[in-house]
Amino acid sequence: MVGYTVEKEYGGMIDAYEKAGGDKSVLQTKDVAKLVVHENRVLANDPVKGLRIDTEETKSGVSVKLTVEKGTKVPRPVHLCFGLLPKEGLQEIIMKVDAQDNSEISVIAHCIFPNAVKVIHKMDADIEIGANARFDYKETHYHGEDGGIKVIPKAKVKVNKGGLWQSTFALSQGMVGKLDYDFEVVCLEKAIAELTVKAYGKGNDDIKVVEKIHLNGTGARGLAKSRLVLGDKARAEVRGETYGNAPYARGHVDCMELVNGTEAVAKAIPIVSVTNDKAKVTHEAAIGSIDRKQVETLMARGLDEDKAVDVIVKGILK
Amino acid sequence: MLDVAKLELKLNGKAIINDFSLHVDKGEIHGILGENGTGKTTIANLIMGTNNYKPTAGKMTFEGEDISGLSVSQRAQRGITLAWQEPARVEGVTVRDYLRLSSHNGHDQLERFLLMVGLEPAQYMGRDIDATLSGGERKRIELASVLAMRPKLAILDEPDSGIDIVALPLLLNGIMEMNKQGASVLLITHSERVTEIAHRVSILCAGTIIRTGPPAESSQWFKNNCLTCPHINEPEH
Hints:
The structure holds 2 protein chains of 2 kinds.
Chain A: H1 6-19, E1 34-38, E2 41-46, E3 51-57, E4 61-68, E5 78-83, E6 88-99, E7 104-113, E8 118-129, E9 134-143, E10 149-159, E11 164-173, E12 178-187, E13 192-201, E14 206-215, E15 221-231, E16 235-244, E17 250-260, E18 265-274, E19 280-289, H2 292-299, H3 305-317
Parallel strand pairs in A: 1-5, 4-6, 5-7, 6-8, 7-9, 8-10, 9-11, 10-12, 11-13, 12-14, 13-15, 14-16, 15-17, 16-18, 17-19
Antiparallel strand pairs in A: 1-2, 3-4
Helix pairs in contact in A: 2-3
Chain B: E1 2-11, E2 14-24, E3 29-34, H1 40-48, E4 57-62, E5 65-66, H2 72-78, E6 80-83, E7 90-94, H3 95-102, H4 110-116, H5 121-124, E8 128-129, H6 135-149, E9 153-157, H7 168-180, E10 184-189, H8 192-195, E11 200-205, E12 208-213, H9 215-226
Parallel strand pairs in B: 3-10, 3-11, 6-9, 9-10
Antiparallel strand pairs in B: 1-2, 1-4, 4-5, 7-8, 11-12
């Protein structure tokens, strides 16, 4: 791309990350595993012992294979940094994860699009968590104020016996733009899945969230949780689906959407299904406005109303 | 400091507050003692401007300024604050953040404010103000946040409700300490025990102050007349 060298791109990504509130030192520390991708170029790839990060640049993005070797416990969080600095572009991440038996890892993905006017960011992930392995995945987005971005993260996750998958997707800085999130998890015997989505929709943001958990193994457990706050003319639809298909499977769908103002629209569709008489799946969905008493509590300490709402929203999305 | 004259609030044509007048001096702890349903919380809301309550008649001035048209924030910025009977919980906000938000004059004494209400800072500062706190803990944190704000006038609505007898002296000490720091306090309660720390106590019945006097005298009058009164909220009887 004209005007962008590898050094400039890397520096630009780090700066954008810092401006969004991130600690850039973690992306500059040698012994922290990291992968930095700008558009379709791999700018940094630093694995650690027991963790392999294989990459292949494609026309529109990068294919990544992340392998956590059997029994490896990665001591510090691994940082993945994806982004696009220009105003327009497409970034497609094809992700394959193989967290082998008894491994443990925490991955923090930073997705940075500070200048997006017409940008598409897609992720298609195929993830397998081995027996008794633990995988914690946090994906945080940093968008600019234009809202001209489509974010389409899709993942299929299989959690084997006794394994744990925890994921948190957060989009609360800048405009969401259009979000189409779709994660589907299958849990085998005594496996656990916890999916959380947090987003703050403003302007004309359009948010669609699907969290689907199949509890197919005896004693499997799942939680599909979402926290959304909508203002202006933002719209959101959240589908939380949990299927209890095995004895002693336990699942819960927990959806909360708060609307601030009169033009935003929130919709929640919890689906719970049980095909085994010893399984139990529950749900709670709450859609409402920001609690006036909370706002007034903070106003009574001297905060103006906008600041009070901001504190409450940040608390909900923390 | 605070002057309320002939305040009235009608809801659906019914007078909830009627001909309510009150004067709170600078540096005074003024108790308002009343049975359930007499309008105590409504008075707190009217003075603070919360819960969308706007007087249908009367006047409220604070340090000579008419505050009737001010927002809750503006009243707080003038130095008035309110601690609710059942304070809201704010998910994702830690006790430390909450005290910091309240403290506009430096954050150096936040731990002391917690200690003053009998809470150990190491145990509480990092906790969220959510449903994991008991009602009593939340009340004490609310008082600590009022202490942190250093208000000119603190309206405390039933500060003792949900507080156990062991913690009550700590709470009352906290209120007296706040008063020593210069705050006036409007102490709204149904408990004569709490009004012992007040300089003057007014008796509230059916949204009207029917008597003001020294604490012991007012408490005795309240016991003799209000607790046994078969005509609750009908002061003309």
